[in-house]
Amino acid sequence: MDIVLVPGFWLDASSWTEILPPLVEAGHRVHPLTPPGLESPDAPRAGIGLRQQIDAVTAVVDAIDGPVVLVGHSGGGAVIYGVTDARPDRIARAIYVDSGPLGPGESINDNLPYEGDDIPLPPWDFFDDADLIDLDDDLRAAFRARAIPEPRGVAYDAMELHDERRLDVPTTVIACEFTAAQLSDWVGAGQPFVAELARLTDAEYVDLPTGHWPQFTKPDELGALLLATVER
């Protein structure tokens, strides 16, 4: 199976490195991506928004023969949802890592502080305590050293969706800083922030208890869970 991995904010393809071995050893073709604007700290980010990142990942899907599994972490979840909307017949499964589908007209996070076209990684006290579970001082230092500013448009742009066949794409949400049971309860209660997730016809929720960056805090567990999900 071809597996396309889309990182969350401030991260490039290398952020997936530690979760790749079990997928590769099982014979899957793995494509960790660096989204537009994340090529380097000095890369130009003017004019790069959510649509440009969606289009870039869609182009990768188009270059692959056969079905594709999409994996999106954090803000990358919005990107892969845009791809399922663009190519619903090509996606075998969408896997959201501590993230979920973004509804039409919504933005990923229009509260992030920016500097011109850049959103630098904020100070740690900007984040909720639940985000930072298991992210110890060494991991925080390594994350900050590798962090690349996110294009402001990616966080602030409104999602545009066009093809409701996206709602039938099989979906897995890996719940990290909240539980699968909580997520199920929120969907059942009609909470607005999971409204788009509630519209999906084939969605499952699985637990991986840790903070918002399991590729750093629980890489072995995340790799094993992705493998189990793909092979099932």
UniProtKB/TrEMBL annotation:
GO terms for molecular function: catalytic activity. It holds the Pfam family Abhydrolase_6. It comes from the Bacteria. Residues 3-222 form the AB hydrolase-1 domain. This is Pimeloyl-ACP methyl ester carboxylesterase. It comes from Microterricola gilva. The lineage of its organism: Bacteria, Bacillati, Actinomycetota, Actinomycetes, Micrococcales.
